[in-house]
Design goal:
Layout lengths: L1 H21 L11 E4 L5 E6 L5 E6 L3 E6 L4 E7 L5 E6 L5 E6 L3 E6 L5 E7 L5 E6 L5 E6 L3 E6 L5 E6 L5 E6 L5 E6 L3 E6 L4 E7 L5 E6 L5 H8 L6 H6 L6 E6 L3 E6 L5 E6 L5 E6 L5 E6 L3 E6 L4 E7 L5 E10 L15 E3 L2 E2 L4 E11 L3 E5 L2
Antiparallel strand pairs: 1-30, 2-3, 3-4, 4-5, 6-7, 7-8, 8-9, 10-11, 11-12, 12-13, 14-15, 15-16, 16-17, 18-19, 19-20, 20-21, 22-23, 23-24, 24-25, 26-29, 27-28, 29-30
């Protein structure tokens, strides 16, 4: 009897601990674990390495810095861009880092060779505001102030496709995990979902009253919570079997201080989340599928309960505007998938997809105009 009771207590404790880990959010239990300083101008973007405890930060000081987020130690500074570095992203294996800049270039850095710059891509006519690896890592997608989105072949450095449709600066572009779709955000107050097969706009999301800064696809794990929030019936088993593995929902953040949740197929605005007092700069879906995190120029991080659309926590993040935010990712042991192959992996923040052989870890990084990066962890 005593043995059974002890076993029961042990199981209960393990389940409780697992639940606490799954529900962890920044600011719970205290402030940031580390504050990383060294940049001489505002932080513009952040990216977690998929296998090492490394974090890359981009800055208006024309450099990229790599840090060990577990220890808070600085590792290396990457120099090569001659103007503001606007974005950074690691490929799914962590072999390469891509960056883009207001100097009109995109650069590829070899992470396995002391972050040596091995390629510089030219074709945009204005500042390159966003650059990301497409799933499969053979291509890169970029967005620019020249109003275009470009697809690049990594092996040849050639631009193989240019997508046109936005009428003003394209602030950013983010891929869907299966690689066929993209979502972009623009100064023209819209977000667009693109079909890469045709290069055409699949749907335009119109409803914000100011620049759209960020747009991210929701991971499949968030679908049930968003359906409940929007009053959409759950799909039947047959519907689920017949459905293409396409995203159902998109979240956008704008300078109009609002976050909107959209139906990808109809373009309908399902919910508008109000609470921030300034521009929305970054959105991250929580790996548990139940929450959405946002950061803003009001210097806070907000945690939203997707099921209700209610803000459940406000974290005072930085002393100045919070420009960027990312959720950590780490490689699973043995390279075996840790997610159900019938669903998609989570998003690590700002649209970066966590590969199937990786698992999200409880660490969040935020970057600010105060020139610092903060690491939030249990």
């Amino acid at each position: 009897m005593l043995k059974d009771e002890l076993a029961s207590i042990g199981t209960s404790t393990t389940a409780t601990k697992k639940g606490q880990e799954e529900d962890w959010i920044p600011g719970r239990g205290g402030g940031a674990r580390h504050t990383l300083t060294g940049h001489r101008s505002p932080i513009t973007a952040l990216a977690f390495h998929p296998t090492f405890s490394s974090l890359a930060s981009a800055s208006e000081d024309c450099t990229i810095k790599v840090w060990d987020y577990e220890t808070g130690e600085f590792e290396v500074t990457l120099k090569g861009h001659t103007k503001v570095v606007c974005d950074v992203d690691y490929d799914s294996k962590g072999s390469f880092l891509v960056s883009c800049s207001s100097d009109l270039t995109i650069k590829l850095w070899d992470c396995m060779n002391n972050y040596r710059c091995i390629k510089t891509l030219y074709d945009h006519d204005h500042s390159v505001s966003s650059s990301r690896f497409l799933p499969g890592d053979t291509h890169i997608v970029s967005a620019s102030r020249d109003q275009t989105i470009k697809i690049w072949e990594v092996s040849t450095s050639f631009c193989v496709k240019t997508l046109r449709g936005h009428t003003e600066w394209v602030r950013g572009v983010w891929p869907w995990m299966h690689g066929r779709l993209l979502v972009s955000a623009s100064n023209d107050q819209t977000a667009r979902i693109w079909d890469l097969t045709t290069g055409e706009t699949k749907i335009e999301l119109r409803g914000h009253e100011h620049v759209v800064e960020i747009a991210v696809f929701s991971p499949t794990i968030s679908n049930s919570a968003i359906r409940e929030m929007a009053g959409i019936p759950a799909p039947t088993i047959q519907d689920s079997k017949n459905r293409e593995p396409d995203p159902l929902f998109v979240a956008t953040g704008s300078r109009d201080k609002s976050i909107k949740i959209w139906d990808c197929n109809s373009g309908q605005n399902l919910k508008t989340l109000i609470g921030h007092d300034n521009w929305i700069r970054a959105l991250v879906f929580h790996p548990n599928g139940r929450h959405l995190l946002s950061s803003s120029d009001d210097k806070t991080i907000r945690v939203w309960e997707l099921r209700t659309g209610r803000c459940i926590k406000v974290v005072d993040g930085h002393e100045h505007f919070i420009t960027s935010m990312a959720w950590g990712r780490a490689s699973a042991g043995g390279g075996q998938p840790t997610t159900n192959p019938d669903t998609d992996p989570a998003s690590s923040g700002n649209g970066t997809v966590i590969p199937a052989n990786c698992r999200p870890v409880n660490v969040v990084a935020t970057g600010s105009v105060d020139q610092s990066v903060k690491i939030w962890a249990p």
